[in-house]
Amino acid sequence: ETSSTTMGFALYELAQDEEIQQRVREEVNEALEKHNGEFTYDCMKDMVYLDQVISETLRLYTVLPILNRECMEEYPVPGHPGFVIGKGMQVIIPAAAFHRDADIYPNSNTFDPDNFSPDKVAQRDGVYW
């Protein structure tokens, strides 16, 4: 069960870093207070840092380390005009390798939820695809 596994890794990482743990605790308490103690969808959406913690957990402890896809149309590889991925070709995407790439995530082996802050996500969005 991937959800239980991810939660286990998240709890492990929180146990390792009291500062991150405290920041999550404060955010959860503030969100619950804002929503009168009710855990609703809107309450959950207010927990931005907790979402970053989950995203960082999934980055470090990748559930699917390799993605298998089929190319749906011819795709010229940007920066390599002589290389075209043909329609119907099977493509293997090394997700775990991207997740540990220091060019994408500085200090790539360190648990850092700020890797998924809105500004850092915006800087990465589409750069490597």
Automatic annotation (TrEMBL):
InterPro entries to which the protein is assigned, alphabetical: Cyt_P450, Cyt_P450_E_grp-I, Cyt_P450_sf, Insect_CytP450_Detox
Membrane topology designation: Peripheral membrane protein
Keyword Endoplasmic reticulum: yes
Localization per record: Endoplasmic reticulum membrane; Microsome membrane
GO CC terms of this entry: endoplasmic reticulum membrane
One Pfam family matching this protein: p450
GO molecular function: heme binding; iron ion binding; monooxygenase activity; oxidoreductase activity, acting on paired donors, with incorporation or reduction of molecular oxygen
Spans traversing the lipid bilayer: none
Major subcellular location class: endoplasmic reticulum
Cofactor(s) listed: heme
Keywords: Endoplasmic reticulum, Heme, Iron, Membrane, Metal-binding, Microsome, Monooxygenase, Oxidoreductase
Similarity-based family: Belongs to the cytochrome P450 family.
UniProt protein name: Cytochrome P450 monooxygenase
Native source species: Ceratitis capitata
Name of the coding gene: cyp6
